[in-house]
């Protein structure tokens, strides 16, 4: 009997030891991440299942690692699907937590999807707001799914956001690579714009035309950051928060008479064609000088909509277009680099020509149907610059 008791005691000690060891291993497999609104988020050491909370998070997460997706915030349109990993087209749609479609993401749907998806973290990206911390704490407590926020609002946020995302999602190498690219590009443009100084060219960005009514993105808008930076955006100060901007009349446009007109993409190039063929538009200096250009589109509109990392494309494009003597590089090479790095897509020369059909000087004024554009890589320079940037954050 004594022997039996001793055996039971030994077994109990072994089980207790296993419990302690297993508990220690389990604890070691978790880590704490402090997000950009100061929330301590407990996460697995290795991340392999991420749900984006909206379109900005979806775009940025894709650039970091498409394999991380277990759901998407919204389905892809016919232009976007050309550039997107086909696997993502089959994933469930989780919806959007913030913005005009915020009601599409709710605790009940997250909990239900998590039963099948086993989500490591729901990623939110954008501008930090006062209500964000309690909002995220609330939905995290209701769903028992981790939510983490990273700031990426202005162009200057991009380098640091990728370093933070690399840490959050355990993708430090790619995060550092994307951060280095953005750091080098922004430094290049800071230097170039100082050279240009007060000699900025005037421009407007036309987002829609309906008879005598014209919509443009106003000066000072979140959506006009690139326009305001590289040119003299002579549209009036913004009054609407919409990405399509504010309403004007044709008479307003004639009075502005800009050096350059950038026009939003449509599948049939309708707005571009209208400007190039309408007698009233043709009286403008920009049209007479051939300085009307359609913003490329694919997988997203380079000018924004939504405004995310692809605005770096519009920065390179407009800089080289308006000031080729300062930003003296092959725009073809730059676009291919960017698409490869951020969209994981290698553009052919034919695809690039389709993509930029009315985005280069000497474009024909008679539009022809074009296939959807494609994405590619960006100039990788200045890894040291990214290290300096990261040092400044510490």
From TrEMBL:
Transmembrane segments: none
Domain Fe/B12 periplasmic-binding: 48-326
InterPro entries in the record: ABC_Transporter_SBP (IPR050902), ABC_transptr_periplasmic_BD (IPR002491)
PROSITE patterns for the chain: FE_B12_PBP
Pfam families: Peripla_BP_2
SUPFAM superfamilies, A to Z: Helical backbone' metal receptor
Name of this protein: ABC transporter substrate-binding protein
Source taxonomy: Archaea, Methanobacteriati, Methanobacteriota, Stenosarchaea group, Methanomicrobia
């Amino acid at each position: 009997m004594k022997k039996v008791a001793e055996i039971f005691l030994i077994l109990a000690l072994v089980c207790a030891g296993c419990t302690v060891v297993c508990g220690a291993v389990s604890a070691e497999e978790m880590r704490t991440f402090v997000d950009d609104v100061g929330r301590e988020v407990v996460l697995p050491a290795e991340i392999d299942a991420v749900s984006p909370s909206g379109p900005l998070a979806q775009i940025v997460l894709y650039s970091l690692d498409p394999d991380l997706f277990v759901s998407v915030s919204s389905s892809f349109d016919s232009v976007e699907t050309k550039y997107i990993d086909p696997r993502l087209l089959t994933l469930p749609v989780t919806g959007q937590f913030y913005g005009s479609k915020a009601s599409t993401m709710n605790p009940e749907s997250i909990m239900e999807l998590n039963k099948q998806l086993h989500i490591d973290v729901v990623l939110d990206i954008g501008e930090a707001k006062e209500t964000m911390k309690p909002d995220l704490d609330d939905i995290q407590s209701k769903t028992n799914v981790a939510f983490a926020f990273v700031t990426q609002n202005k162009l200057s946020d991009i380098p640091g956001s990728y370093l933070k995302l690399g840490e959050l999602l355990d993708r430090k190498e790619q995060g550092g690579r994307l951060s280095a690219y953005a750091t080098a590009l922004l430094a290049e443009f800071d230097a170039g714009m100082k050279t240009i100084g007060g000699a900025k060219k005037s421009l407007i960005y036309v987002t829609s035309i309906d008879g005598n009514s014209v919509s443009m993105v106003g000066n000072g808008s979140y959506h006009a950051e690139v326009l305001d930076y590289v040119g003299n955006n002579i549209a009036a100060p913004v009054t609407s928060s919409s990405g399509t901007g504010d309403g004007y009349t044709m008479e307003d446009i004639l009075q502005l008479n800009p050096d350059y007109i950038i026009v939003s993409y449509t599948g049939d190039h309708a707005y571009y064609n209208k400007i190039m063929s309408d007698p009233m538009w043709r009286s403008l200096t920009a049209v007479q000088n051939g300085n009307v250009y359609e913003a490329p589109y694919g997988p997203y509109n380079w000018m924004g909509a939504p405004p995310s990392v692809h605005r770096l494309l519009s920065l390179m494009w407009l800089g080289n277009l308006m000031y080729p003597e300062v930003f003296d590089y092959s725009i073809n090479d730059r676009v291919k680099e960017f698409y490869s790095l951020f969209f994981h897509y290698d553009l052919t020369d034919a695809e690039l020509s389709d993509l930029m059909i009315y985005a280069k000087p000497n474009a024909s004024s008679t539009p022809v149907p074009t296939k959807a554009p494609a994405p590619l890589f960006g100039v990788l320079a200045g890894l040291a610059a990214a290290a300096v940037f990261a040092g400044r954050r510490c």
